[in-house]
Amino acid sequence: MDLLTLAAAAAKLVFDPYVLVVMVGAAAFGLFVGAIPGLTATMATALLVPITFFMPPVPAVAAIVTATAMAIFSGDIPGALLRIPGTPASAAYTDEAYQMTLKGQSEQALGAGLVFSAIGGLFGTAVLIAAAPALAEIALKFSSFEYFWLVILGLSAAVFIGSNSVLKAIIALLIGLLVGCVGLDNPGGYPRFTFGNTELMGGISMIPMMVGMFAISEILRFVVNTDPPARVLVQRLGNVFAGMWALTKKYPTQILRGSVLGTAVGIMPGAGADMASWMSYALSKKLSKEPEKFGTGHVEGIVESGAANNSALGGAWIPALVFGIPGDSITAIAIGVLYLKGLNPGPTLFLNSPENVYAIFLVFIVANIIMVPLGWLAIRLSTNILRVPGNILMPIILLFCAVGAFAINNTVFGVTITLAFGLLAYVMEENGFPVAPAILGVVLGTMLEENFVTSMIKANGNPLVFFERPISASLGVLTIIILFWPLATWLVRRLRARPVY
Amino acid sequence: MRIHDALSGLLLALLAVAILVTVSQYPPIPGQNVGPSAFPGLVAMLLLGCSLLLIWRGLRGERMPLVVMGAWTRSTPHLINFLLVIASLLFYIFCSTFLGFIITGVLILAVLFYALGVRQVLVLPIAIIATLVIHTVFYKFLRVPLPWGLLQGLHW
């Protein structure tokens, strides 16, 4: 199929009234969840999954893409008005935005967040559209060896990027891999770690697990929070689009830099929108002509990292669609949905159902465009959204989680999984074990084991076979360098520190 | 709740050993050197190594009690909230089939609203409305067979 027919087929899939209604609904949901402090974009995705479970593939993916894009933007709203980031991706510039509010410039802070989020999002989408099909061509030539290294590379990046303690991140990852081992789905078809429970034969259901890890743990954190509730700085918001054109002309480099960095960080497995926004804010301050203004209510950093966190979303979908390797926890959930919908991510997806891939691209474009009017509406209603009391919202979310977990297999066993993993995630985060590597471990565990076992059988006891093919050799060497880098720097530091006699 | 690294390392090491013992009993695939035990075995070995490292690091690190409970555990209302969230899910797991979704949902919401300090006149109305909305979304639109339980005779 040529590009034009593909685009037409994709447009037919996306510009369907049902899909559009789903997208607007998901957008409203995403804006709402993102704007409530304590409810993250990842949680929005996890809560949507039980509903998308009952939809055809394109609207299901459309709902997730739209909701996450909106939630990442609307996290800026409580950041600017309450000094509490709505989602972790807004945390980098929350203080800045709040300082602007104190100066009476909240509409400019929010407007910059909205407009440059949409621009960054479109940039990430453009890279996704350009890069994914080309990468898929290369990925078609991959054998189990290349996939083995690629998964290892993805997992090690997830461990080394964005965790305070590499050791704890590795442990979280290993726990995730072990959770992925549960069930019959293994080389011997032998029931592993099922304790004779028939419900565990099929493995731990991904959706109840994610609802638990991302929603229940958040609810637990809410009910034990002893901090007094924050107060909204109620003020009338002016025109949020005023002065945006001037900002675009003033900071073109910053917008481009934020978008490029955001997309690149998004592509890297394990690092998502929050990492992109922190790095981008830091870079913006470092390269700014007026770094002394940062932190005093200066819009430059918001422009750059606002673009970065939304462009990361598009970037994260590149490895997800092409290799089935998620770039962050949101795409980890999305990959679970793709599998459920029979759209198994990987290069063959581009061969077998290119119209679906292009429909996903188109969804990204539409989502980033409707973000502008809907985001404007959300900002207008923001003072009302922020007044929604958490003590009413959280119990309703809890009941929703229980029903959502039940709905996947129509058994209460799903609720048991949700409860168990909610508690696990809560305890893990309290003790500095990051949750994201664990999720990536579960999602990638089966793929890693399959390619590991296939490769081992092909290798027939000779480990050098893992390095025989050119791509596999380079991926292998790269992985080993990344894995041993911390050890090497530690050794060098030890040797240097030794006194010279 | 913060657990001392040495203690969490010890627990993880025990888990790793338990897994290694379990997988050692898995049958091999005839004629292959890698079977169902190879991958979890390898992961458990790595986990054992990492947990030993965590124990070592915990013992060398700052002195702290084995378990430090968060500030909220000393505040009875917060402790009750925490336990209520868990109890609600357990209640759902064990009673929703018998009581039916609507009764279970209203009870869970009403208790949690009450505990979290929602104004008392609003507790029951919001609990009932929210449960019915969730019921309609999942039962009518998504066709999830939510149990009717005691209300079987009333089903619509």
UniProtKB/TrEMBL annotation, chain A:
Residues spanning the membrane: 20-40, 47-73, 109-135, 147-180, 200-220, 316-339, 359-379, 391-424, 471-492
Keyword entries, A-Z: Membrane, Transmembrane, Transmembrane helix
Top-rank lineage group of the source organism: Bacteria
Residue span(s) of domain DUF112: 20-440
Pfam families: TctA
InterPro entries in the record: DUF112_TM (IPR002823)
Name of the protein in question: Tripartite tricarboxylate transporter permease
Species per Swiss-Prot/TrEMBL record: Ferrovibrio terrae
Automatic annotation (TrEMBL), chain B:
Keyword Membrane: yes
Transmembrane regions: 41-59, 82-115, 121-142
Keywords from the named record: Membrane, Transmembrane, Transmembrane helix
Pfam families: TctB
Domain DUF1468: from-to ranges: 8-147
Identification of the protein by name: Tripartite tricarboxylate transporter TctB family protein
Organism expressing this protein natively: Ferrovibrio terrae
